[in-house]
Design a protein that fits this description.
By secondary structure, chain A is mainly beta. Chain A has no helices and eleven strands. In chain A, a hairpin with a 2-residue loop joins β7 and β8. Chain A is globular and about 35 Å long. Chain A starts with a strand and ends with a strand. Chain B is an all-beta fold. The N and C termini of chain B lie far apart (about 40 Å). Chain B is globular and about 40 Å long. Chain B is built from no helices and eleven strands. In chain B, strands 2, 4, 5, 6, 9, 10 and 11 form a seven-stranded mixed beta sheet that branches. Classes of the chains: A mainly beta, B mainly beta.
């Protein structure tokens, strides 16, 4: 089973600032990685797949990068609606799909 | 638009059973792989089970293997999860999820609470 590790656990950012979230895999994923956003009381929402492809309707301020074992989600200028928990998920080696433990982006 | 709606959650005693359902609409259900993914209170996401579009391929997380059964009825655009021998650690919101590799549509979730 591939272990996914996200850092930091919590990221404090001011509105308008840039946020950089990291996700590390225990084995190479090539680019088979997705990112999700989850707000309190809501289901997750797909942001990025294929490590860098934005899902339908996702604003351009969200970008993904990386390959192999190291991946990054960048939010270029945080808006109030972006404060949430973000999860990465690998789909290179399955079953099982595995998720990171999440990074909470909070208002500084 | 694409929609998946779960139902069937509730309070059940340890050792009990529950059947979750997921009604799909807005897309050709029979074309899509589907999964159940759960989230324990205050915790992260855990993939539970996965079924191919035809139902011919099925996978389970080790934590539920032998206790849970996933199935689908393409004629009814529905996905199911039969949960037996429930344990306290199965307490979670269960999401119905569409996608072969990643999830592009999620339901709102249904809460399963296992407690005496």
């Amino acid at each position: 089973e591939i272990l996914m590790t996200q850092s930091p656990a919590t990221l404090s950012v001011s509105p308008g600032e840039r946020a950089t979230l990291s996700c590390r895999a225990s084995q190479s994923l090539t680019v088979n990685l997705a990112w999700y956003q989850q707000k309190p009381g809501q289901a997750p929402r797909l942001l990025i797949y294929g490590a860098s492809t934005r899902a339908t309707g996702i604003p351009a301020r969200f970008s993904g990068s990386g390959s192999g074992t190291e991946f990054t989600l960048t939010i270029s200028s945080l808006q109030s609606e972006d404060f949430a928990v973000y999860y990465c998920q690998q789909y290179n080696n399955w079953p099982p799909w595995t998720f990171g433990q999440g990074t909470k982006v909070e208002i500084k | 638009q694409v929609q998946v709606v779960e139902s069937g959650g509730g309070l059940v005693k340890p050792g009990g059973s529950l059947r979750l359902s997921c009604a799909a609409s807005g897309f050709t259900f029979s074309d899509y792989y589907m999964s159940w993914i759960r989230q324990a209170p205050g915790n992260g996401l855990e993939w539970v089970s996965y079924i191919s579009s035809s139902g011919s391929s099925i996978y389970y997380a080790d934590s539920v293997k032998g206790r849970f059964t996933i199935s689908r009825d393409n004629a009814r655009n529905s996905l199911y999860l039969q949960m037996n021998s429930l344990r306290a650690e199965d307490t979670a919101v269960y999401y119905c999820a569409r996608g072969r590799n990643f999830v592009d549509s999620w339901g709102q979730g249904t809460l399963v609470t296992v407690s005496s």
